[in-house]
Design brief:
Shape: globular
Distance between the termini: 42 Å
Radius of gyration: 22 Å
CATH superfamily of the largest domain: Glycogen Phosphorylase B
CATH topology of the largest domain: Rossmann fold
Structural class: alpha/beta
Number of strands: 18
Strand order of the largest sheet: 10-9-6-5-2-3-4-18
Strand content: 15-25%
Largest sheet: 8 strands, parallel
């Protein structure tokens, strides 16, 4: 007789949310836990590198059609394809999966014993309650940012009437360690939309985040060396009812093939990127990337290209195609002028592989949490250029708390001074810079955290043990079907 947990994993359909959760699901599947991952047809490709024909690693997809909604244009693959400003449409549409998931779960010979779902899918708490099982939140932000976000939704601060349009109005967060203060424009855009909409019109949005606080606990892609104070803060509650597990960094350094496969397509092969990096001196290259969703303005691109050109530093710049038509944003003639020391990579970049290459000296980043953690785990100094969401909070962690980076922006102007950026690139690609020494120490801590006896390893073991404890005793294994499940519905996209 053995206890076999069966965990239903529900990701939010954006690349930066799916991939770390798939990493975690894969990790759980190596600990005798049966995993079913909900995925839409076109997003199945992101899960594919984690699937195995080996029945001893029982991770299987449950393919559901992307929910239809009048707010979502036809042909949308995931939230990254939505027109700007339509982000909330997917959050509003995805609860339509609740009834199909409830029916599926009740029909299983080995029904789920727990749900792990993304921080944007608070409705899965009601699904878990209907099934009589716990729901865990998987956070794609760090615990510092989540501490701030929890405080916002619990306490609902606002600007006074006489400052109703003041984007610089300071908002203190006194119940978070260190009592940080953020100007209004640096708060979560989802929270700001909620506060700036007619009263009551977006109350469903607040309920999503309050459901996170009401869940069993949170799983974080972080490690205690860098965010221990905030993990402790989140896990403290008078009733003892909210747990935290820090299981990161969820970065597969040791599996190069899977690192290369994470993500999407590029005009340049991984082999050519690595060959170009191989030809550069140690710690001499500035890697520039703004993630999978961000689009820079023409003014920001002009400032960045001027900084790269005048710095004299070798660089690898990952440039995204504009989402809704138009060429990628590279100034005319730029590539020809810098071709001896710069590479422009269009499309997806094998970021983990790049950051861990010996020639990369610094990382100019938008401070998305995945990029932040990947940069820290690689021991690379960070030049921070936040754009929105939790990125300003991550910048505070990087620059002010961990001292592993510098700011590209000063003041409120979203367009940096090219001279300042160029000088920072030169400083951070010096092998003897102080920031590099601190970054390397963080890298060592990150690697130790996931090894046997490390803090993240211990948290993972504790979570696995709790999941096994709650599983029913059974005589057979693999009762989740051992195959890909597909459910019919609206046209798959």
């Amino acid at each position: 007789m053995a206890r076999t947990p069966h965990v239903l994993v529900v990701p939010y359909p954006a690349q930066g949310h799916m991939i770390p959760l798939f990493e975690f699901a894969h990790l759980l599947s190596t600990h005798a836990i049966s995993i079913t991952v909900v995925v839409t047809p076109k997003n199945l490709r992101f899960l594919q590198p984690f699937l195995s024909d080996d029945d001893s690693l029982p991770l299987r997809p449950l393919v559901l059609p992307f929910p239809s909604s009048p707010d979502i244009p036809p042909g949308i693959e995931n939230s990254q394809d939505l027109p700007k400003g339509s982000f909330l449409s997917v959050m509003r549409a995805f609860p339509a999966l609740s009834d199909p998931l409830l029916q599926w779960a009740r029909a299983q010979p080995h029904p789920p014993t727990a749900i792990i779902s993304d921080m944007f899918l608070g409705w899965t708490l009601d699904l878990a309650r209907s099934l009589g099982i716990p729901r865990l939140v998987f956070y794609t932000s760090g615990s510092f940012a989540v501490s701030v976000v929890h405080s916002l939704w619990l306490n609902v601060p606002d600007r006074p009437a006489d400052h109703a349009t003041d984007e610089l109005f300071p908002v203190p967060v006194p119940d978070v360690p260190g009592s940080p203060v953020f100007p209004w424009y640096q708060l979560s855009p989802i929270y700001r939309v909620y506060k700036e909409s007619p009263a009551g019109s977006l109350e469903w949005l607040r309920k999503i985040f309050l459901a996170n606080v009401a869940s069993w606990g949170g799983v974080f892609n972080t490690f205690r060396k860098i965010e221990g104070a905030y993990l402790d803060h989140l896990s403290y509650r008078p009733d003892g009812g909210w747990k935290t597990w820090a299981v990161g960094p969820l970065v597969p350094h040791w599996e190069e093939n899977r690192v290369a496969e994470r993500g999407g397509c590029s005009e340049t092969s991984v082999r050519d990127v690595v060959a170009w990096l191989d030809g550069r001196d140690e710690a001499s290259v500035a890697y520039v990337c703004f993630g999978s969703q961000a689009e820079l303005s023409d003014e920001q691109v002009a400032a960045l290209s001027a900084a790269l050109e005048t710095s004299g530093v070798a660089f690898l710049w990952c440039v995204k195609q504009k989402k809704h038509g138009g060429p990628s944003q590279v100034p005319e003639g730029f590539e020809e002028r810098v071709k001896e020391r710069g590479m422009v990579l269009r499309g997806w970049a094998p970021q983990v592989l790049i950051l861990n290459h010996r020639s990369v000296g610094c990382f100019l980043t938008h401070c998305g949490w995945n990029s932040t953690l990947e940069g820290l785990a690689a021991g690379v100094p960070l030049l921070t250029w936040p754009l929105y969401a939790d990125q300003y909070m991550n910048e505070v962690l990087i620059v002010d708390q961990l001292l592993t980076g510098e700011r590209a922006l000063h003041g409120t102007n979203p367009v940096p001074d090219p001279t300042h950026v160029a000088q920072a690139l030169v400083r951070l690609t010096r092998r003897d810079c102080e920031v590099r020494a601190r970054s390397q120490a963080i890298k060592e801590s990150a690697h130790l955290a996931v090894k046997g006896g490390g803090s993240s390893y211990k948290d993972l073991v504790m979570l696995v043990e709790e999941l096994h404890q709650m599983a029913p005793l059974n005589n057979s294994e693999g009762e989740n079907g051992g195959c890909t499940h597909t459910m019919e519905g609206s046209d798959p996209i």
